[in-house]
Backbone:
């Protein structure tokens, strides 16, 4: 794994994963290499489901078709989407799948700095993208959710914890 990706993974564990209650129902969209699920399962979280377009995800398919994938509305406490939202708009699906008060945990390149992320990829310092970044979005502009925590890391990456409002 590239050095910057490995470092970011360790920081994501501390910032995002450790605060999740062990009893929480967790859905990860775009589980890819499954490192999040492997970490959570190995450390006591028992209600984790990983979804991705390809195996070996727990649920294989397009999250935009969540009903056909057998998922139920308002059934998760936490939805994780690390390095996914820049590829596909999943805001409505996350909103639909989260319980009121549930949290959406996101990471993505800062849109105006995506050129630098491409450069880091070419230098072998960052993980290669798997598809174009056709949905770059600033987290403070994401609709439907209340921001809990919005951070920028090294001016390149944005990390967000957003909450589905309890009452609409």
Residues:
């Amino acid at each position: 794994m590239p050095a910057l990706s490995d470092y970011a993974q360790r920081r994501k564990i501390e910032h995002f994963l450790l605060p999740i209650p062990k009893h929480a129902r967790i859905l990860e969209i775009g589980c890819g290499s499954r490192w999040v699920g492997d970490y959570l399962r190995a450390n006591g979280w028992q209600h984790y489901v990983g979804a991705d377009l390809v195996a070996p995800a727990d649920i294989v398919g397009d999250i935009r078709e969540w009903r056909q994938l057998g998922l139920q509305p308002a059934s998760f406490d936490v939805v994780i989407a690390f390095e996914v939202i820049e590829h596909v708009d999943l805001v409505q699906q996350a909103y639909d799948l989260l319980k009121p008060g549930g949290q959406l945990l996101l990471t993505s390149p800062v849109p105006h700095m995506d050129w630098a992320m491409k450069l880091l990829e070419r230098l072998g310092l960052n993980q290669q993208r798997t598809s174009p970044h056709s949905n770059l979005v600033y987290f403070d502009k994401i609709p439907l959710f209340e921001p809990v925590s919005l951070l920028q890391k090294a001016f390149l990456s944005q990390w967000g914890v957003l909450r589905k409002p309890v009452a609409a």
Observations:
- The two ends are 42 Å apart (CA to CA).
